Amino acid sequence: MSGLQSPWNRLLAAVSLAGALACPSPHLTAPAAAGDHWPAFRGGDAAGVADDADLPDQWSPTENVAWKVEIPGRGWSSPVVWGDKIFLTTCIDSGEPPESRKGLYFGGEQNQAPQRSHEWVVQCRRLESGELLWSRTVHEGIPTTPVHVKNTYASETPVTDGERLYCYFGNRGLYCLDFAGKVLWSQEIAPRKTQMNWGPAASPALHEGRLYLVNDNQEESYMQCLDAATGQEVWRVARDEQSNWSTPFVWKNKLRTEVVTAGTRRARSYDLSGKLLWEIAGMSPITIATPFEWKGLLFVTSGYVLAPKKPIYAIKPGGAGNISLGDKETENEFVAWSQKVAAPYNPTTLAYRDRLYVLYDRGLMGCFDAATGREIYSRQRLGATEFTASPWASGGRVYCLSESGETYVITAGDEYHEERTNRLEEDDMCMATPAIARNNLLIRTLTRLYCLRKSAP
Predict the structure, then answer these.
(1) How many other C-beta atoms can be found within 10 angstroms of the C-beta atom of residue 240?
(2) Which of 432, 387, 337 is nearest to 103 (CA)?
(3) Which H helix or E strand runs over 123?
(4) pLDDT tens across 257-283, in order?
(5) Which of 92, 187, 321, 422 makes the best surface tag, with the fewest CB within 10 Å?
(6) Does a structural domain hold residue 1?
(7) Residue 314: per-residue pLDDT
(8) Tally of structural domains, the chain
């Protein structure tokens, strides 16, 4: 990253990219968070809330498990759902993939791509039973670039409009499939070098027949708009950025619709033709979490764990030009409030029942007033110390899934209260953010997909 001294580069190597695997998230304008569909990462509105879903709040490897299936290969993309169909991406290594490791640590970089064949695969399963309806290999070959051991070659979450499924594999290609598994069109993505060879992970955003892709890398960063029906490029704009892993968010506010991107140098917003609307500086050296909206406010965060700046910004509609804060400012005309050292690294924050919940990678949770930024309670310790997946909320509870497969169930409110801890199999590793549809909770692990349902045997 431009301007970082060698000690920073050594520190950067300590931290995995895996949060982008959970955090990068596609976005639709019509929320479908608690109904039949979960069409993108964290739902159709990218908020991670399904308040009217009747989800179980307690489970084990057998209790309230409607079904579980083995998933071949590796992928930290989240499942997406449309009606009775679950869609999932994975990449199958013809050899022995490197051992996955949990936590934040030095090492894990791979300086060369594996010189053996891989299969990039899209699966469709039945929501009710987990039955495999079809599996489609969209590409087979040798990877062109390496990835961190906590990344995968299938880390970007797909997105669907109910007719077509869009699957993006960074440094490989973008594939459009119909619901029967037929590839309608595809576009190759030129491989780019990423910071420390961690690999890409940002997902596409979808809005009114157009796909938006952000490709921040060490060579030539850009944002691209494609026609969703044909895959043809509509426009492309260059970005003054190096590697980031944050997915763009289409923000339809009371004034206009804009495409928001989070970056290291600046968070930026563009209109639907690619023209820059506003930008804000002050981010941390690595940006992973996805922007999202709550009650008219846009939340943008950047919290690399070893950086002095870890900002949370609550931004009002209508910004123009440079809306950056001064060193002593916490708000201005377009920034409703900010907390300059409060953001998490990997997980995206969660706005729920007028509170902003912040899950930190090392197993702490903080809570703020979502409208004002006032701290409600300071960082409280959860049992686990390794978190990558973003939290979700339903039925007055907040759920936090650790990398070891433990889900901490926390009562939503002004006081921290941990109700229980639910555990999966001992060998389960979890970095993908779950999906919710038709009162089902879908949790992807390193090797399995679980469907949790209330009163399941």
Answers:
(1) 13
(2) 387
(3) strand 118-126
(4) 999 999 999 999 999 999 999 999 999
(5) 321
(6) no
(7) 98
(8) 1
